[in-house]
Design brief:
Length: about 280
Amino acid sequence: MPLKNDFLIAFKDGVVELTTTATATHRDEPGTFLEDVQGLLFEHQYRAMTDPTLMDPSNVEVSSCLISRDPIPDEIKSGLALLGFVPASVDAGGRDESVMFGRSGTAPRSTLDKWVVRYARANKVSPLLDELEASLIEDVPLWGGLDESHQVARQALVDAERTIARMLVAPSLESLVAIERQIQKARGQASARLILHPAAVRALAAFLAETILALEPAAHWGPASEGEPATLIVERGREAIETDPELRVVRFVVHGARALLSAYVESFIAECRAL
């Protein structure tokens, strides 16, 4: 059951829906299909957490949708349930006038299988995360590259931590660990997938970037490319290592303890010093 490479983004009843269509059914490849779905979910979460237009106003909900024009086999349904999907109301087909980006207007069809993953915004997970995020939405610039705004974004996080969480932080490995623990504790045992506003992601990415800059004197911002995320680069001779701070933050938000920022910094610095 291959997936289309692109996805639609629509706003419906206070929910941003990121929708991908399965184009065909192959009952003998459920494992491969479910791996593709996991990759799809990450693409959706990355887009939602880095595109400042999608969660404005800040109280909108976000979900990922999978639509199939063929019946979904039972073994794939079981896998989708394990990934957090739930079956939704069956779409009658036709042209969706609420599509904001991408392509629409597929041929009408009587029934569609639709499965949905609903993401948890900070205000559904923790009062502390909600308050921190609200402060960052007010103070973090979202337009332009992180290389242009990292100092302002980092200071916004430092100020929010001091005034809201009563925690003093500065770009360092120790402070990064403290912020990780704070987020992990706040999300607790919540089963829903956490998603943060792009302002919070950018602030965390700025703090991560300045931690790397503090620990590795050779690190610097790479050449700016329109439409591409800002990256840090370490060059020695003909060898170079590059990292995308915003991507790393999204991975941490999505995967939690399996993608700690502090562990990544230690690994990145060790790789740089091995050049």
